[in-house]
Amino acid sequence: MTAPSPDDRDAVLDLADVRRTFGTHVALDGVHLRVRAGESLGLLGPNGAGKTTLLSLVTGLRRPDTGTVRLFGGSPRDPSTRAALGVTPQATSLPQALRVREVVALVAGHYPDPVPTPDLLDRFGLTRVADAQCGGLSGGQQRRLLVALALVGRPRLVVLDEPTTGLDLDARDVLWRELAGYHARGGTLLVTSHYLPDIETLTERLAVLVEGRLVADGPIGEIRGLARIARVRLRSDASEALLHDLPGVVEVVAADGPGARGTARSWEIRTRDGDATVRELASRGIPFADLDVRPAALEDAVRHLTGDPR
Ligand SMILES: Nc1ncnc2c1ncn2[C@@H]1O[C@H](COP(=O)(O)OP(=O)(O)OP(=O)(O)O)[C@@H](O)[C@H]1O
């Protein structure tokens, strides 16, 4: 038997050539993914890409058809392996008649060194509702409680599926602040989200799933570079067709309403080569003003990678 490499020893999670089908539908295929201790990985992909299926393999709810999933070096199906895993329970599994502080204490009782209940409630902004019954919580309060429960046992890895969907901005901020704190203290995170700015602030690495396959995996900056899309904004009386004809341009959108003939309009141009686009604009003597060139927002990069034409 060969000795494990340092990489293997560091791996908190290791998926090797994983395939999972549902009947004839292939939900995951040929997925290799390794998450090391202290990493924060964002898993992105369009609806139906296989994100939830992947998380269900990591949390031991399902098995792969072929390939292997190792969690902390063991099987995620083994309850003792899952003891160091933080997951949010299903909202429906919250005992409706128990008070918030009772539920936290109940879950904390399963761990050797839990976060003290008052601390956890305070950090998640739940102190005010500590004596409320779970059944009476608002949707946002309930979601905050569920994520708090994922952190109560000081897990080595926290896995969250779309944790901020449906949350208001305050609740979202509380949640991201707590997850960022957990990560800053050395915790490992695997988070799926459709809200890309969240991923940008919370995760350093991005894996993109499309139709069950990982199409990209790397540092966020690198993924953005993969898409190589820049946004050029300017005002010009040039026609849409003329702007479209510039080198590198993939899309031209009028950023204001229809302008009167001959008046300058605001345009947003998506281009694979911002420099070449602007150089050509200038060399053709096309008048323009208010030029603003920026790298693609992460949304654009991922849309480009996932083939979403929006
Ligand atoms: N229990 C199941 N039975 C049959 N098909 C399933 C089952 N679970 C998932 N699928 C299918 O597998 C594919 C991947 O689904 P999954 O829920 O993992 O995607 P997702 O990326 O999480 O999507 P979303 O962003 O919409 O939550 C989808 O086509 C889905 O319809």
Automatic annotation (TrEMBL):
Keywords annotated in UniProt: Antibiotic resistance, ATP-binding, Nucleotide-binding, Transport
Transmembrane is among the record's keywords: no
Compartments where found: Cell membrane
InterPro entries on file: AAA+_ATPase, ABC_transporter-like_ATP-bd, ABC_transporter-like_CS, ABC_transporter_ATP-binding, P-loop_NTPase
SMART domains in the cross-refs: AAA (SM00382)
Cellular component aspect of the GO annotation: plasma membrane
Swiss-Prot/TrEMBL GO biological process terms: response to antibiotic
Annotated TM spans: none
Limits of the ABC transporter domain: 13-236
Pfam families according to UniProt: ABC_tran (PF00005)
UniProt name for this protein: Putative ABC transporter ATP-binding protein
